[in-house]
Amino acid sequence: MASKPELRHSELKVHNNLRIPVGQETVSATRYEPVGYGDELPALLLYYPYRKDDYLTYGAYAPTIEFLAMNGYNVITADLVGTGASSGRKERPFDSSTEGREGKAIVEWLADQEWTTGRIGMFGKSYPGMTCLSTAAARPDGLEAIAPMYTSTGGFNERHGGLLDAWGRGGHWNPQMQALQALPSSNRDDDGRWEEVWKEHLQERLEGTPWLFQALDHEYEDEYWKGTGIDVSRIEVPTFAVSGWRDIAPRDTLDYVSKIDAPKRAILGPWRHTLPHRGRETAIEFRPQLLEWFDYFLKNEENDALSHPTITFWTERDGGGKIDRGVWRATETWPKATDDNVDALTFAVTPSGLQHTDEFTSGSVEIEYEHDHTVGMYSQDEFAVPADTNGDDVRSLCFETDSLDDAVELTGNGTVDLRLMSSIPDPLVSVRIVDVSPNGDAMLITHRRLRASHRFGHDSRQEVTPGEEFDIQLYLKPKSHVFEEGHKIRLAISGAHFPVALPTRKQGTFRLHSDPKRPSLLTLPGRVHESKVAFDETLDMGQPDTSVLPVDSQYVTPERSMWETTREHINDTASVHTYSGKKVELPHAESMTFNQDIRASVEANDPSSMFVYSETEMTISHRNQRAHAWVTCRTSRDSTQISTTVTLDEQTVFEETWTR
Description:
Elements: E1 12-22, E2 25-34, E3 41-48, H1 57-70, E4 74-79, H2 96-111, E5 116-125, H3 127-137, E6 143-149, H4 166-182, H5 193-207, H6 211-217, E7 239-244, H7 250-259, E8 264-269, H8 287-299, E9 311-316, E10 326-331, E11 344-350, E12 353-356, E13 365-370, H9 390-393, E14 397-400, E15 407-412, E16 415-422, E17 428-436, E18 442-451, E19 469-475, E20 479-483, E21 488-494, E22 509-514, E23 521-529, E24 556-558, E25 562-568, E26 573-585, E27 591-603, E28 606-622, E29 625-636, E30 641-648, E31 651-659
Parallel strand pairs: 3-4, 3-5, 5-6, 6-7, 7-8, 8-9
Antiparallel strand pairs: 1-2, 2-4, 9-10, 11-12, 11-23, 13-22, 14-21, 15-20, 15-23, 16-19, 16-22, 16-23, 17-18, 17-21, 24-26, 25-26, 26-27, 27-28, 28-29, 29-30, 30-31
Helix pairs in contact: 2-3
């Protein structure tokens, strides 16, 4: 790893209630100013819908915000128009064209302030990562570098193969946002503006269409999605991207990095939706690298920002999912199985399992599989600790290699090409690649799901004809992983991915076909490591330095979280239950608390039985006043209901139920 930049630290002065004009609305922002650096400094903007005054600012981002500010930046946290303490109505999420225009106005306003140098950067994880990209695509004057992390490029990409993520969107994110939008700001200005903004947001909740319903109503890439995707080819500013193999958007990250024509850098680790200095399998010294990037482009400091590889990535070892079992490596371009001149290994589905295509010379596969809608409960990337997937695999259509004589490396975007016949017109096709260890343990490595009617693209519905064979290609999530000597590579095929994929209503079957002339295939970019695994070069990414600031927010007291899977054996019903909660201490109020309980259930042979139910509670304690939001949400294919109740000092001030 390149040498660390020299770090300086100072005290911070916090300016709450900064008002920024954006069109007809006013964005509310907070400025973190370092003391002792002079009157004019570059500014870094975090623009997001997660409430600058409480939920994720003090609940997650505080150490990073403070780190950047203490090293010579005005850091600005700003609520999206229509969220938090900003005026306006947020009628729909992920509206990248609108949010890009808003971000442009904010950047240009910041560049004109006497306390900035006119040089602005943006950073953020997840939603604020998307606003980095959408704002950069709008090309505001003054924007000189961005650092988007763990984000997609918006638009229909949020649909994950054409089906709603019933767990992530239906159970977690939309109910969370419903609660956040229903609460008043925790930072009360003396003139009472906070109350007027709060009433406006509640009125929008009352009159508008719930965001979850909008997603359910637009299952294809129709007019609703027009303008919501980000044209990343318009981005001209230096971009430092971060993602994780177990996050939702590593493929989008690698895609936008390849399209941006500007200085760029990407880090992809074994992480879920968490910053690199907080990773489970490995944690790195990330914050100084972020500082190095902005110092080079916003302060003209001579450092090593441009000496890093274009892409730094983690290669998993020893089965995957284990702490500190892997290596950091580098590449200038990311391999895809569909690209020319990419070294790849191709395995055919054969009567003997997975074999190299040149070994498949006789026989054929014609096997029927009845969809089991409980499959997926053990095959979740994003839950905290990887689980053994055998419970899913035994209920799937599986093909695997013999024990490997030599290690096989996957580095890139693989593909699965299947010849299928379906008994129903619009099945979900789900594939998973699994590492099977010599003792039989099975670990999810990469996967993909795709609704069959979307196989030619998301903008039109092209169902299959029941009883007629069709071809379908699935592009696997990117990954770098070594299947060790003695391990097996397993391809698991199913018609479900519970609880994340909301199934179509009909139960059905697949018939899988493969023969030497037209085999069903698994293609993995990579190579065989003969005799022993060896890489040309590995990198040292360092360990997080917590001597000045912790990696976790010092304002948070977490509650014990849980992830539980159960199976009821008489009716063959699978259930998943998670719980999470935290208390966030606030400098301008007492606290905010968050608790969310999510449950999902489905019967193996009845896709219409699947539902996700969540209860979300948020409370803001502000001196002698207590605001509380209670949101329940039940999502299913046939009926979805959201209820929201808001109380102020135990008196109900808002209560509404929406049914679709």
